[in-house]
Amino acid sequence: KYGSDALRFCLMHITSTGQDVFLSQQKFELGRNFANKLWNASRFSLMNLDLSLVNTDLCLFFEKEKLELPERWILSRFYSMLDSLNKAFANYRFNDAANILHQFIWHEFCDWYLELAKTNLVSSQNKNTQIVLYKVLEKTLRCLHPFMPFITEEIWQKLHLSPLAPRHSSLVSIMTQPWPHLQKQMVDKDCESALQLA
């Protein structure tokens, strides 16, 4: 009724170590709604991405380009999230990891960054926005893959096996991709505070 990824994510989201789990259909709806949110955000991103930009090296790009506040903010938030996610995994707090991903994807990536990016994506000067959007999306998919393997694989295929995207045998499946590396130089708490005040 809800899909295997929705069920899988929901069970990890609500299961705390040493606690009883009370199942209900309402809780499974959380996983289904989250999967729908991710799918719709990815569809919007794919409609607005030039997939020839996928080979851009993010670290070099970050050092070279003078990024706008929304792009610096989402990169900072992603790597702050990744740091918290790594700590949750290291302590076997899988429900905390699921909560961290849910918060970032739903509220920060979808509700904030995609809305802020829409203005730039319709302009002709949107290369930087496209690169950051692509990089954050694909790295987030890699983080989410252990929780929701089917939907992340499907989106990954659309990102990397499109006729417009460069073909690389190493990109055939998200299962073969490494875990994202933490880039501490992109974490900027002042930037995060500035966007909250803007």
Structure report:
This protein is mostly helical. 66% of the residues lie in helices and 0% in strands. It has 8 helices and no strands. Helix 1 (4-14) packs across helix 2 (25-47), helix 1 crosses helix 5 (94-121) and helix 6 (127-144) packs antiparallel against helix 7. 31% of the residues are buried.
Main features:
mainly alpha; 8 helices
**Strand percent estimate:** under 5%
What is the rounded distance between the termini?
42 Å
What's the story with the biggest beta sheet? none
Show unreliable segments. none
**What portion of residues is helical?**
55-70%
Tell the overall outline: globular
SSE string: HHHHHHHH
* Average pLDDT rating: 88
Q: Which structural category do the helix and sheet elements fall into? A: mainly alpha
Radius of gyration: 17 Å
Using DSSP, what is the number of strands?
0
Number of helices: 8
Q: Secondary structure elements and their pairing?
A:
Elements: H1 4-14, H2 25-47, H3 58-64, H4 69-90, H5 94-121, H6 127-144, H7 149-160, H8 189-197
Helix pairs in contact: 1-2, 1-5, 2-5, 2-7, 4-5, 4-6, 4-8, 5-6, 6-7
Summarize the structure.
This protein has helices spanning 4-14, 25-47, 58-64, 69-90, 94-121, 127-144, 149-160, 189-197. It is mainly alpha-helical.
